[in-house]
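User: Structure please.
Assistant: Input sequence and predicted structure:
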Amino acid sequence: GGSVPTREIDSWCVSLATTTISVDELAHKLRSGGVSVMGRVQQDRLLLDLRTVFPSQDAELVESIRSACS
């Protein structure tokens, strides 16, 4: 998307799966939590693209994931 839709941007993703809740439920909990975390569901995993996460936000992201999984 955007102004150059054919250009690829290098990035890293974190792939999440859980045995306690569905991936769709995990995605919903992360989107609707105190800090919204947006990801995409692909092949029964939630992918979080880290290109827009600053290093100073890592701990907050980890806490959001922990909270959504409990």
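DSSP finds two helices and three strands in the chain.
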